[in-house]
Structures are given as C-alpha cells and as structure tokens.
Amino acid sequence: MNARLNAENAARKKKQRIAKPARRPRRPSLSNEELLDKALDLFSQHGYERTSVETITATAGMAKRTVYLRFGDKKALFIAALQRAIERWRVPIERLQEAERDGLEESLLAIGQILVDNLLSPAGQRLLRLTNAESGRMPEIGEYTVQEGTGRTIAYLADLFRRHFQLDKLEMPEAEDAAEAFLHLIVGGPATAAAWGVLRDKALIDRRIRFSVRLFLHGLMAHFGEAAPADATALKDEYLRLKRLVSQTIMQLDKARENLAHAGAGTVT
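and the corresponding structure tokens:
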C-alpha cells in the first residue's frame, strides 16, 4: 500500500516538473552609461518636461524600479545624462596646448577654430540648446557647464596670455577677463547664431574668426603696451609711405645744399 502511494506521489511530482514552463532568459540590463545616452537622446528630442521616466524605461527596456534605484528621480537622471555629455564633448586642454604656435595670433586662430568647430558640432548644438532651456530651473546645470567646460578653457587661455607677456598673476590680474572676452567674441557669436538656426558658410565663419582674433589682439596688446600685429598689406603701405618721405627729405637736403653754395657759404656736406 505504502509502496503504491509513494509511486503515485513520485509520478505526480514528475508530471508537475514537466508541466512547469521554462524560465525565459533575462534580457541583459543596460549599463549606466548606455541608459544615460538613451535618456539624453529623449530629453533632446522632447525636452525635460515632456520626457517621462516611463518613456525612458520603455525605450531602454528597463523597469522603472531599476532606474529609480540607480538615479533616484527624473531630475537626477537628467543632470547625470547632461554631465556625461559635457564630459565627453568638451575639448581637452592638451589638444589646445598642441595647437599653440610660435606667435600669439597664430595660436589664437588655431584655438579659436577648434572651439568654434566643437560648439558647431551636433553634440555641441544639442548641449547648447539643452543647457539654455533648462539652466533657468536647474542652476546646477549652468554651474557645472562653467566649471567643467568654460572654466577650464578660461584658465588655460589666461595662462597662455601670461606666458606670452611673461607676466605673473599679480602683474596681469585681468588675464581671466581677457580669456572670457576672447570666448565671447570669437566663439560665442557663431555658436549663438547656429543655435538660433542661422546657418553660415564655413568660409564666412573662418573669415570672421580671423577678423575677431585680430580685433581682440589689437585691444589686448594695446592694453599691455605691445604693438599689435600688422598684416602684410599694412606693412607694405607703411614701407612705401616711409620711402616717399625719405625721398622727399633727400630732395629737400639737396636743394638746401645748392642754396647755401650760391650764397657763398662754401661746400656743405
């Protein structure tokens, strides 16, 4: 009797094991970096307010609980995504240092071109629009952008100016002001125009970068008592003017010598 019951129980358990559906393999969860990239894409397309955590999790194939455990809330997720994008987009200071040339004008032209191209890139324009749109309600976004992006570039440019003029911080306290003015004049204009949808030809942008750099240098060098660089045309005009002046002076000297000789003053050398 007991043997028969044991056999029936064993058969029933075996049948239950066979009938139980097999577990589906789990979908691999996205890394934090992959999640932040997907979230930033959605924030860029729809804006912060119109992008919900539900939309992000559905796109990423993740549970809301997982996202909340990793980042806390939507605002924290947005800030983390933006910070990651800024860190990947900003120009390394080493790249700017490699662009330096013998002359300050050539260095600033190369540096300005790098910074403008970086801001006009798709990643740069996306960040510019996002930070402009949301920094009013989230001041920490603007602070982070200045600290990790603009602030580092300003510190580098200030050091470049001090090295060129061979001055220290006490002798050149306005170096940071000059660096900020450089960014506003050379970089800010093309970037703002592009953010407003005003697309300009690269040749025009390059020409205006060169003009703006020279305009900046004239003011900077005049402030620190150094002659501003002149272009080839200006040098040629100045040479011809001085040559004419020398010729006129020689003619006047020859005329004066003749007059003195006629007046009986003897030979004049």
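(Above: one complete record from the training split.) The chain has a mean pLDDT of 82.
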